[in-house]
Amino acid sequence: MNNNILIIGASGQLGKYFVDKLSLNNNVIASDISSSNEFKCKFIFLDVLDIDNLKSVILKYKIEIIYNLAAILSAKGEKDPNKTWNLNTESFLNVANASIELGIKKIFWPSSIAVFGLNSGLEFVKNDVPMLPSTMYGISKLSCEKLMYYYNIKNVLDIRSLRFPGIVSASKPGGGTTDYIVEMLYSGLNKEKYICSLKKNRTLPMIHINDSVDAAIQLMNVEKKCLSIKYPYNITSFNMSPDQWKQVINDLGYKFDVDYMPDFRDNIAKSWPKTIDDNQLRNDISWKPKYNSLVTAESILKSIQS
Ligand code: SER
Known about the structure:
By secondary structure, this protein is of the alpha/beta class. The protein folds into two domains: 4-165 and 208-234, NAD(P)-binding Rossmann-like Domain (Rossmann fold), CATH 3.40.50.720; 167-205 and 237-276 and 290-305, UDP-galactose 4-epimerase, domain 1 (Alpha-Beta Complex), CATH 3.90.25. The chain has helices spanning 15-22, 51-60, 74-77, 81-102, 136-153, 180-190, 209-221, 242-251, 264-270, 279-285, 293-305, and strands at residues 4-8, 27-32, 42-45, 65-68, 106-108, 111-112, 159-160, 162-164, 166-168, 194-196, 204-208, 233-234, 238-240, 258-260. The strands form four sheets. Strands 3-2-1-4-5-7 form a six-stranded parallel beta sheet, sandwiched between helices. Strands 6-8-12 form a three-stranded parallel beta sheet. The longest helix is centred in the first third of the chain and has 22 residues, at 81-102. The mean pLDDT is 97. Residues 73-74, 112-114, 137, 164, 166, 176-178 line the site of serine. Serine binds at residues 73-74, 112-114, 137, 164, 166, 176-178.
């Protein structure tokens, strides 16, 4: 392996985990507009909306592969839909255009279960179904999914993608509809009451951060001919409601109370799948999750405390 890899949006929920894993075998440059993490690799300030700067970084560090993680998530995105559209789509286009011009080999770009809508159905939602997302985050991700497909079928770029569900990590996401899954772990540890913005029985698909990062890296490393689709793959691990998650944390010995005060985020969650079918990914790249809900809670609680 040993590629020169640029990670954009490295200060977000996923960045540090990608840096840690990719740095084992590659020369990694982490970048963002602010630095909130301690990285195991070089960090540079980079605004992905500045395409000239992006191009000079690619040239300076002889970048071959890009992980483009920059995004405004679903709940925060509804506070400023224009900004969300601009950041999410411009960052995608800048990376795509710079990559075409400078011959980047591969791009990983995460999509989301937010691309689905009520017309997709909510149970065991397949990869390729009707989609009318109801958030600007979902709309911007779906638009970029179409661009990704375009670049892939035209053979001008190799972009690979997973539709991430809620991701359970020690790092706090910020601005997502699924953030409760991380925040409740902190409340459990601190024995603090948690105010939940979703209904207690609002089930959504979830995944351990290590499973999501491993799957993304595996997807990037397989030969192109293994991939049966040129748009994002569904990915999932377990399905969870806030009440069930509270129970999992309680059963591990962390007692805390939850008040359920559903707000606009519950409306968003209501339009997302309860369960999704990721068999196409599992078949194409021989991947399956290693962490169930209990092991996920245990492992992230441990990592928050270490
Ligand atoms: N975790 C994201 C969100 O809640 C979904 O991709 O916005």
